[in-house]
Design goal:
The chain is an alpha+beta fold. It is built from five helices and eight strands. Strands 1-2-3-4 form a four-stranded antiparallel sheet. It has a four-stranded mixed sheet with strand order 7-6-5-8, with helices on one face.
Length: 225
Amino acid sequence: MTEAGPAFDPGAYVVRYGGRALLRAAAYLLGGLAIIVFVIAVHKPVVGVVIALIVAAILLGAGVFELGKVARRQVAFAVHQGGVYFGSASVKDNVPWSQICAVEFFTELFSTARSRHKHRCIGVRSLGSTQVARAGNGRAAQPWPLHSIRYMIDAGRPDLIPGADGTIRYAYRQMTGWRADRALVAAAVARYAPGLPVVNGMNFPPPLTRADAFAARRNRRTAWF
């Protein structure tokens, strides 16, 4: 194990932080510097200045952090002899082939009152009927609350509940500052785990149609009588 990540066999497909991370670093650094210049140029109340400088410091810190990953040639993702390695988060994770039933690509959507953000993700699926929480995973691989499960049942879509098909999302990462090439991932998977599928996984949140939502509302209303 080096500072950049573990050592992999020569045939491994390894993704390291590079150009995309540099662009993210530049955006953070420029954003932080722009705030500082604005604070200097425009007279603001003390409270506003303090808040602005805190935001600038956070952006500059994030930029330096991204630059560090590029400088160290840190490994973000790898398909290798021992399994699938996720090194893109503070929690590193190596999932052995014995735990994997599929490698998946999917999209994770974040919605706010003002914007929607889509993140490309890559992960691995494992056999199981109930989603489990694991360190390093985001919302797309967390156990569902009971009210969400009940809603899917009322909508007539129990097939969308994690574990319904006998598999769960075991581990994943957003491809932020890096990208995995699907063809190269598939070739590496075929080399180390012949027959293991590389699939388009279900996006998160799961796709519900307007008809599904109407069905859930109707079934919930009927349940009161």
